[in-house]
Structure formats: structure tokens, C-alpha cells
């Protein structure tokens, strides 16, 4: 499961959380083809019992993007297939079997932002900064960023980032939607693990529906979205675990929603 550049560790009392760590700190965890393929293979073969994943980067940075030292001259067909390889890898993460929470710190740049945008929750610490320098380097995003990132921050903001090389700091990034949580320096991983343990306690079918159905419903016309919602709702509530949880709530055995202090 582990490779020189990618590591998986189990976490939690029941080992229900997997920590997946990029391990190229000398390269600021820049993504080469081998690492991208390792990500694809790992998310295709997650160990049994894993119910949530935390994605982390070793060292001072989450991921500084594409490893430009390995950038090759490609013709149009080769470039197309290379981009599609990235698409397949990040789809395994986004549309896999369990939710993925990114623990962001330092550089979240280029392909690193494409990777982070494929995760379901992003926790950033105060050292995090975001950029899409492809525009100033004469290239274009190729790892799915043109689809995922505008869904987080809008087309206009992504256009600005690529046209001007604009860099967002951690506070600005959280404000515009690049992260859902902002924590002090060095605390992104601990917060991500805290959230992952909560996510892992959800009914698996509910988590699966949120990963696979909700994004599609959001893009459907309203009448189709309502029907899809009804179908997914019926499937989710029919699961034995869902029935047991509702019964526990009705019997006063489940905690009620409380306002967070």
C-alpha cells in the first residue's frame, strides 16, 4: 500500500480513519506521474474498515503542484491522454467509497489546488496559500481544476487567479470558499482528524449519497434534482443502520443537535 512518495496510516480506536500522506517534502510534495498513479491505486484499494480519509502533505507544504522538472514536450494526443490520467486518479478520490478531508498547510498551488479541490472537506492552517500559476507559465490546468475550482469560488475568481497569478492567503482562501475551516498554524491535521472521526460515524450510505448524489443533484434541472433526491432519500432511509438510528432518536437514546460553543 505504501510507496516512497505516498504513505497510508490507520487512525482511531477502530482504525476507521486512514491518513494518506504525500511524502516528497524536498520537492514541496510536487506531483509527478508516479505519485499521481499511486494516489489512483491507493484509493482503488483502500483497506477494509476505512470509513474516512485524511489527505496530508509531509513537511512545510501540502502540495506545490506539478513537478515541472518532469514536464515533457508532448504532442496534442499525448497531452490529452496525460490529462485524462490525472482525471482518472482524482476521480477515484472524489468519487470513491469514503469521504476525504484535506489538511492544508503551506503551498496549495497549481496541481496541488486541483488535488485539494477533489477532496470533500478542506481544513487550512494559517500558513496556507493558494495559487494557479499555469496561466503565467503558458499552460492550462489539466487535472480537473477547470471543473472543480469554479464550483468552489466561481469562474471569475479562477480566471483572475490564472490571468494575473493572484495568490490568496489562508484567510482570503477560507473567505472565498477554498477551505471550509481555518485553524492556527500546525493544527490542520488534528482538526482534519477530528472531523474524519465524526464523518466515519455516519451511516455509510448517507456519506456515499453526499459524495456521489449531491454534486449531481446540484447540477440537474430542478425537476430532475427533486426526483433524484427522492430516490436517494428512499434508498438511504431503507438501510438497516438508518432505521436503527432513527429509532434510537425517537426513543431518546440519541444526542440532540446542540449549538457549538
Structural domain tally: 2
Gap between N and C termini, in Å?
40 Å
What is the total tally of β strands?
Answer: 9
Note the run of SSEs as H and E: EEHEHEEHEEHHEHEHHHHH
From the 3D structure, determine the CATH topology of the largest domain.
Answer: 2-enoyl-CoA Hydratase, Chain A, domain 1
Strand order, biggest sheet? Answer: 1-2-3-4-6-9
List keywords for this structure.
261 residues; alpha/beta; 2-enoyl-CoA Hydratase, Chain A, domain 1; Lyase 2-enoyl-coa Hydratase, Chain  A, domain 2; six-stranded mixed sheet; three-stranded mixed sheet; 9 strands; globular
Would you kindly provide a written description of the structure presented here, covering whatever features stand out?
With 261 residues, the protein is of the alpha/beta class. The protein folds into two domains: 6-200, 2-enoyl-CoA Hydratase, Chain A, domain 1; 204-250, Lyase 2-enoyl-coa Hydratase, Chain  A, domain 2 (Orthogonal Bundle), CATH 1.10.12. It is built from eleven helices and nine strands. The chain has helices spanning 33-44, 76-94, 111-117, 145-153, 155-164, 170-176, 188-200, 204-212, 214-219, 222-238, 240-250; strands spanning 6-11, 17-22, 52-57, 100-104, 107-109, 121-125, 129-131, 168-169, 181-183. The chain has a six-stranded mixed β-sheet, sandwiched between helices. A three-stranded mixed β-sheet has the order 5-7-8. A hairpin with a 5-residue loop joins strand 1 and strand 2 (17-22). Helix 4 (145-153) crosses helix 5 (155-164). It is globular and about 65 Å long. The termini are far apart. The relative contact order is 0.12. The model has no long low-confidence stretch (mean pLDDT 92).
